[in-house]
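Anyone up for a design puzzle?
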């Protein structure tokens, strides 16, 4: 059984997609051991509680230094005894010590087709605003392992989403979540939980599912 920690900051729709996918069998061999939010008012915390999952807030505001916050975050994940850390809309920079300790065991969902519209400053609605400003006709989402860079880690899954005439950043954000993020993040967890994912020289290989 893969034990995962889901780290969140906001609405938690990706967390909900994971909870629902475990319930309906799209994700197998997986248990959510902990949900951690940096933001006490994140609706994601309520979603976790409703699903009977242990959830807590670890906020940088409660610590005098960033280093103390980083230590507390790492300690919480360690205590939960998890095999995989899932960043599901987590807006905090991951401590380097955590990346090193959980090498190829942290995944993130990013709302664009990496390497487009990613890196520093590309988060939330800003991504979709930039997509519309550039006039690209296809966008999407990327699920990737986390390394020391911003959105630079090995890519696990990507899914394209059409940009439509008249899209607003919010409308596009919603379509990218529905059509791509909520599909590929659960799929990546399921494939990892079932031992189908390996990383070699910075590239991800996925063993095909048997028919
Ligand atoms: C998603 O768009 C995700 O790609 C981005 O932040 C948003 C989180 O949404 N990193 P939610 O909290 O899962 O609803």
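Challenge accepted. My sequence:
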């Amino acid at each position: 059984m893969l034990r995962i920690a889901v780290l969140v900051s906001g609405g938690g729709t990706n967390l909900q997609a994971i909870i629902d996918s475990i319930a309906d069998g799209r994700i197998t061999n997986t248990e959510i051991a902990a949900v951690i939010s940096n933001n006490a008012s994140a609706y994601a915390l309520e979603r976790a509680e409703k699903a009977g999952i242990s959830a807590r807030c670890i906020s940088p505001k409660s610590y005098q230094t960033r280093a103390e916050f980083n230590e507390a975050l790492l300690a919480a994940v360690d205590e939960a005894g998890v095999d995989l850390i899932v960043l599901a809309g987590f807006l905090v920079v991951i401590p380097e010590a955590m990346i090193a300790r959980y090498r190829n065991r942290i995944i993130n969902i990013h709302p664009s087709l990496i390497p487009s519209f990613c890196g520093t400053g590309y988060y939330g609605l800003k991504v979709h605003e930039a997509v519309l400003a550039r006039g690209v006709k296809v966008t999407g989402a990327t699920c990737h392992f986390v390394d020391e860079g911003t959105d630079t880690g090995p890519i696990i899954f990507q899914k394209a989403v059409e940009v439509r005439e008249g899209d607003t950043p919010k409308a596009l954000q919603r379509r990218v979540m529905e059509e791509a993020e909520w599909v590929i993040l659960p799929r990546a967890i399921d494939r990892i939980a079932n031992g189908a994912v390996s990383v070699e020289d910075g590239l991800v290989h996925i063993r095909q599912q048997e028919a």
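A detail worth pointing out: The longest helix spans residues 169-193.
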